[in-house]
Write a structure and sequence with these properties.
There is one protein chain. Strand 4 and strand 5 form a beta hairpin. The protein contains 21 helices and 15 strands. The chain is an alpha+beta fold. The radius of gyration is 29 Å and the shape is globular. It has three domains: 329 residues, no CATH class; 116 residues, no CATH class; 134 residues, Jelly Rolls (Sandwich), CATH 2.60.120. Strands 7, 8, 9, 10, 11, 12, 13, 14 and 15 form a nine-stranded antiparallel beta sheet that branches. It has a four-stranded mixed beta sheet with strand order 1-2-6-3. The chain has a two-stranded antiparallel sheet with strand order 4-5. The longest helix has 40 residues.
Length: 632
Amino acid sequence: MAAPVETLRMEQQGRAWDVGKVCDGAVLLAYACLVLWTIRYHEKWADEAQAWLLARDTSLGDLWFRLMHYEGSPGVWQTLLHGLIAVGWPYAGYNFVSALLGFAAVWMLVRYAPLPLPARLLLPFTYYFCYQYSVIARSYALFAPLLFATALVLKKAPQRPFLLMGLLGLIAGISVHGVVISVAIWLIAYVPLGLRWRELTTLERRRTLAAALIYGLLLLLFVICAWPAKDVAFAEHRGLSNLRYMPDVAQATLAGAFTGEWITSLAVIGLTLPFLWRGGGWVFFVPVTVILLIFGTLVYAQVWHFGIFFLAWLFAIWISALRTKITKPTMIALSVVIACQCDWTAQAVYYDWGHAYSGSSEAARFFHETGVAANGVYAIGYPCTAVQPYFGANLYSDFDHGGSAGYWDWSKRNLADDPSALFSSNRRELVLVGYKNNAEKSRWAKLLNLIGYEQARHFEGSTFWQNGIFEAESFDLYRRGSGHPAVQAVSDINTADPAQAVQLLAGFYGVEMHAWRWTAKKFSVALKPPPDAAGKGAKLDLSLYLPPIQLQMLGPITLQADVDGYSLGSRTFSAPGLYTYSAIVSGGHLRVPLVTVNFYLDKAITTLKTDARELGAVVNSVGFSSPTTPSP
């Protein structure tokens, strides 16, 4: 009877295997169809475009050793795109790159993950796999396939050190988060190996040391290339003073990574911790989570990073399941996360099918139809980058100073958001404003109206995050008008007057006590030169107050000013009180309808626990008067 029983058992296993393969195939087919169908409707936004433009418009040497200092990450993703563009891959097929990477990750998950069948069949449809890191074409799409490939070869680390080194090197080349994750995996793979070093053969030792040396050099290269430049204009407010925000960053990150709510997300993690402890995955997950939360607090955190924590958690579960059996609490945690994130996927896909994720595609279509030439539009705002890849050459007169590069320059040399550059430009018949919120839209609309522009077109779009609109990515196109502006500029500004607030260009906070505003260290205003100022010149007066706390904490404070770059000199204040800074401006610098006056304080308070703003001075008014008028 043994043979028939054994035969029956083998037949049952064969049928189970066949059913499993059918389920796997059905899931992969459904996943591919859903992702590809969503890509059909997806409009690419600025962050997607920026990476493509960096890959298209620069050499690999310039990319790695200059531009990555401003992007804050190594250039593996841009290098991949550079190669694809070189062989003719079109921008229309850009999102298929992330889709292919997503499919590879899901294939490994469904086929090889040591998880129960229901989890393997449903995880592919969670938010980060099925939308955020597959439909959206960004470097984060590399994380899942590389992490899962690493999980597959981790046990073979002693025999395949160069393969593991290559995978970890690629992970580190994605972003700073990748560096942390890569180093953590390397440690869990090779620290145990080091403890039994004497058991290894001479060949194994040599190969391991050689792979470790190459890996260390790769990490050094990535750090050098991604180290922030001195004039970077991205994530400037980094530092230890941000530690007070760590609870907020941690709560937002945990919520966004798992269930949408930080308490239930913490509970989900808690349910899996005993399993991760027994399987050893906690050695990876806990340090990585803590380090990345600290990095997000001190340097920079954004919602797009949250999925990395979700993938790190899955990786920890995967490697733990190789050593110990999946527990019921772990399955409950996975079920809760799957339920929450499949709902996010449904909402995100439904939104993308019926709404413009960005107005960039419609704007590009309009410019193609109207025949706008290269360098034929003046662009304001980072979102305008999203329009550029639809054209073979730089569309904007102010990007790259009218050169060929179409990417956004994250250095402080970039004046695309500087009103003074707009006022002084002679190449702005058409002005395109890209904005993320109504405040930006309103501000630029009023400024452009001051210099005689009228809105000609609007291109609507909004990015989507999990279960709701995240921020606008819309565009307004302005054309030089023939009539008089609806709002007239003034020569003398009362900072508390809301009607004149449009001329406060930068560095001013909200009105306080209905009378004044705090400023930042640098602040700027737009002023209309007085009548006859082109011949007679004018006197600039700034009324400011320095509270005692400023001088107590900072010591003497020096104020400098310039008009469109022309220096007006400086004045140092050694005691608190009300002052008037005055300077004579010659007529040669007042021959335009509007001038930009910039003020610079050499010191400002940034360490108050009760106020997170950069506090420079209190300003009541600023304006021009006749040079013969006595100073107040």
